[in-house]
Amino acid sequence: MMNRTEERGLRTEPGSRVGLTQSSVLAPQPSRGFTLIELIIVITIIVTLMGLFMNRVLFYQEQAEKVAMEGVAGAIQSALTLQHGQILTRGKPSDLAALAKDNPMNWLQKKPRNYAGEFYEPTPLSVEPGNWVFDLKTRDLVYLLNSAEHFKPGRDGRSWIRFHVATYYEPSLLPSLQNAPPELTGILFEPVEPYSWF
Predict the structure, then answer these.
(1) Is the distance from CB of 140 to CB of 192 less than 8 angstroms?
(2) Which of 112, 150, 145 is nearest to 127 (CA)?
(3) What stretch of H or E contains 166?
(4) How many CA atoms does the CB half-sphere of 14 hold within 13 Å?
(5) 188, 193, 190, 169: which is closest to 80 by C-alpha?
(6) pTM as predicted
(7) What is the DSSP string of 95-161?
(8) Are strands 132-135 and 115-119 parallel, antiparallel or unpaired?
(9) 167 bridge partner residues
């Protein structure tokens, strides 16, 4: 008598056990893939992670721009100190008034690549974001922000920072010099109004 397995073309040795059932030989189990719900969950997780990643990338881009802007402002402050020293060395303190109205970019040995030039009353539409520009009307050096998601704008509500040369004078404390003109105590390259990122 022939075994049913032999009828289907499979030979078995007497005494060996065949672990195959009839249903597994005839209809093998299909490999199980993703269900629609599992696919939706995976896509949701990927989109959430990409959103967090992009938010961090934009934040760090903004921080890098801030550091670069403050680096240029620091270089200008150093150049201003040198200019002030030259004026004192020459013995011409009257030139300090002209220094406060001069374009600070002229003091740098090499202007930054993102310096757009001099404009009379610039607007955010007239200058590309991420550039420095000198305002001929107010005599301020202006930096127009490229990434301003976390920037708190000033009173004018614009995404830029205005810098100017500020001179500080104090009257003489010596009684013998009471009628002397005020004495220069400081000259700084500083923002016109405080700025901040949140």
Answers:
(1) yes
(2) 145
(3) strand 160-170
(4) 2
(5) 188
(6) 0.70
(7) GHHHHHHS-GGGGSSS--TTEEEEESS--TTTS-TT-EEEETTTTEEEEE-S--TTEE--TT--SEE
(8) parallel
(9) 187
Residues 69, 70, 75, 76: is their CA dihedral positive or negative?
positive
For 197, the enclosing helix (H) or strand (E) is strand 196-197
Distance CA 71, CA 77 (A): 10
Rounded to whole angstroms, the Cα distance separating 121 from 127 reads 11
Largest CA distance in the chain: 135
Tens-digit pLDDT string for the chain (198 aa): 445 544 455 555 555 555 555 555 555 666 677 788 988 999 999 999 998 888 888 888 899 999 999 999 999 999 999 998 888 888 877 788 888 899 999 999 999 999 999 999 998 888 999 999 999 999 999 999 998 888 888 888 889 999 999 988 787 776 666 777 777 777 899 999 988 887
119 strand-pairing partners = 135
| Gap between the Cα atoms of 36 and 41, Å rounded | 9
Cβ-proximal residues to 149 (8 Å cutoff; 6+ apart), any chain: 58, 59, 62
The phi and psi torsions of 172 (rounded to 5 degrees) equal: -70, 140
For CA atoms 69, 73, 79, 83, the dihedral sign is: positive
CB 190 within 8 A of CB 102: no
